[in-house]
Design goal:
Elements: H1 4-16, H2 29-51, E1 66-74, E2 77-78, E3 93-95, E4 110-113, H3 127-133, E5 137-138, E6 142-144, E7 157-159, E8 164-165, E9 168-177, E10 185-188, E11 203-210, E12 245-246, E13 250-252, E14 257-259, E15 262-263
Parallel strand pairs: 1-11
Antiparallel strand pairs: 1-2, 1-4, 3-4, 5-6, 6-7, 8-9, 9-10, 9-11, 12-15, 13-14
């Protein structure tokens, strides 16, 4: 046991530490710097979010009416264009003659893109909007047209797993001309629903064809000038651009459409 004198010494040592505060070396400088840096970073994040344009901003906007030609090609033939009705005039997209469609249907091979208030404006204007409107299922291996758009007994489903063109293996491809007068195009083999509508006068050829097949402009492209669309190209057919994409999976609202998202290297080709 500790002696009486030892106990008194311990008590005195313990009493010396009472009421003393623990101090960090360096004072408050470092914590202040950390607080300032954190505040600045927070302000930068808030500012960047406030200044980045929303996805729906930019053209097209309500009041715009873009004319975009399209065609659906199987092997070496264009199948009949889709028929539109007057009901779609109140939607973001329609097809058929905008005047004749009020009294019936007319398959003109033109995507009339006229976004509604609160609809698919700006960067939301994509091929997927058209596909969903008309119930077209399009993936990197399959093309399906709704029964309402084909004559009784006509083929409306094509799958690369069992469909060939004169014995040649097929692929689904969407060729896009940014300007119907240019001749420059890009071939896409996936992620079709995400292809954007960026201007009036574009052309989209949806095709299931052999890999080495040429895809010409759909006949409907020739009617864009009659609709008042002024092209910006030279009319040359020698300009180029092919992009092939593959992998990943995405589903659109139209009949479980699967698409891929990863892009691989581009291969030059001659425009048609």
């Amino acid at each position: 046991m500790a002696t009486s004198s030892s106990a008194k010494k311990l008590a005195r040592l313990a009493s010396r530490g009472k009421g003393k505060k623990v101090r960090f070396q360096g004072g408050t400088t470092f914590p202040t710097i950390v607080a300032i840096v954190s505040a600045v970073m927070l302000l930068l994040v808030v500012y960047s979010r406030a200044t980045v344009p929303a996805e729906e901003t930019g053209a097209p906007q309500p009041g715009d009416n873009w004319s975009i030609a399209y065609g659906i090609r199987v092997c070496d033939e264009w199948i009949p264009n889709l028929s539109g009705t007057a009901d779609e005039l109140d939607a973001d997209v329609s097809t058929g003659d905008m005047t004749a469609v009020e009294t019936g249907t007319d398959a003109d091979g033109i995507i009339h893109y006229h976004p509604q208030t609160g609809g698919n404006t700006g960067r939301k204007a994509k091929l997927g909007v058209f596909l969903r409107q008309y119930g077209i299922s399009l993936s990197d291996t399959r093309l399906e047209i709704p029964e309402s758009q084909v004559a009784a007994g006509e083929t409306r489903v094509w799958d690369t797993a069992d469909f060939t063109c004169d014995g040649k293996e097929t692929q689904v491809r969407v060729r896009v001309w940014d300007d119907y007068t240019s001749g420059a195009f890009v071939d896409n083999v996936t992620d079709f629903a995400s292809l954007r509508f960026t201007r009036s006068g574009m052309v989209f050829a949806i095709a299931i064809v052999p890999k080495d097949a040429e895809i010409p402009l759909p006949d409907s492209a020739a009617t864009l000038a009659d609709l008042g669309v002024i092209g910006a190209g030279s009319g040359s057919t020698d300009t180029t651009g092919v992009t092939e994409t593959t992998a990943a999976t995405e589903t659109t609202a139209a009949a479980d459409t699967t698409v891929a998202a990863e892009t691989t290297a581009a291969t030059p080709t001659t425009g048609g």
